[in-house]
Amino acid sequence: MKIIYNKYFPFGSFFATNLFGIIFCRSDKGRMSEVDKNHEYIHTLQQREMLFLGFTLWYCIEWLWRFAKCRNGMKAYRELYFEQEAYAMERDLAYSQHRRHFAWWHQFVAKGSLLHELGEFLGDIAGFIKKDFLWKKYLFALGLAIMIIVAQVKFNIYDIIIGPTYDDGTSMLRIPLIYTTVYFLVLIPSLAMHGELWRLRRWQVWVFPILLLTIDGAGQGFYGYTEWAEKFGTTSKDRYYLELVGSFMFRSVFIVLMLCMFRKLTEGQFGLFGLKRSGKYLRVYGLIYVMLLPMFLLVSFTPQFLDFYPKMHITSYVGALGWERWQLIGLFELFYANDFIGVEGMFRGALVIGLTRWLGPRAVLPMALTYMCIHLGKPDLELCSSVIGGYILGVLAWRTHHLWGGIIIHLGIAMFFEAVGIARLLL
Q1: By three-state DSSP, how is residue 214 classified?
Q2: Of 289, 266, 277, which is closest to residue 405 (Cα–Cα)?
């Protein structure tokens, strides 16, 4: 255990602190005793089993929660579950030899509580990463993601590669081809690095992803609704509105096709798109959503957000079809929300839950990179965060075999952005 003595850190009255297994100790307050070292080593064990990042996240969330209850920073610190274990066992110098994994959680967190559920939640993520992680694989995926992000931010590849396909009639071919290429560009090296190329001998590993991504990409590239709008719209506003609604409404047809594929893949074990009756982690998903709301609100003030949301600028469609504004907004948002449910069913449902029997945990990372590609052309922050969010939601779908996390968070974010955008236009 590495100990760094210095005069400045940690600040305040603290004697020592443990950051990612390295101990920083104030030299002006003396040397660490064996008890102090054991206390910090217990924290190192806690951090390792939560992959360091999970420890930091839990530590901050729990301290904020306890501080909000007692309004005393030091009392909140001493009541932290990590600290309770460390202080209770610091004098047992042989504790690390017989310590149970996640002992702080098993001993001090009340079962059935929100924090107990949060611990299981983080434990599931950590357990998956331990099962799936190879540094060279994740470094390769990170490099590919950065290349795609830079290409979009610097060169706007959406307008170069995808945008023109709607005009030349190749969108239903080119978009699925892009998605499929990215998917296998991640999957094949991933399997090779794990020594699992034998999985590629299964025809399902090739056929089902290609069919699924073709259905989804073709649904995104479908533009036949323009003829439908021309036929039924009597004014230009009517036609523009029908085109906008049609772009999402006709995707419902493709969602039905994906539903059929999903049931074929899972033999109906996981309900409709994985929306089975399961309440696992629902409170945690709700907590995460509430905690992210301030960040969403800050993002909503950025210029890119103002250019992109709301998806329907109601001021451009006032009077369409002879309807009131609330009717125009309501119909559009209904199909817009339906599209997000379809996206979850496709990426976390079919591509993760559905392919688990043939790919196991290797199904998650290719899905996350492909999912990022459907965000090309959207605000840069949304594009960058989509790969992280898609990966985490994919892990949870793989562990829980349901999609409620993605529905709550993904749809919740979209509707929040829509609500803020509409309020700005109407107020």
Answers
A1: helix
A2: 289
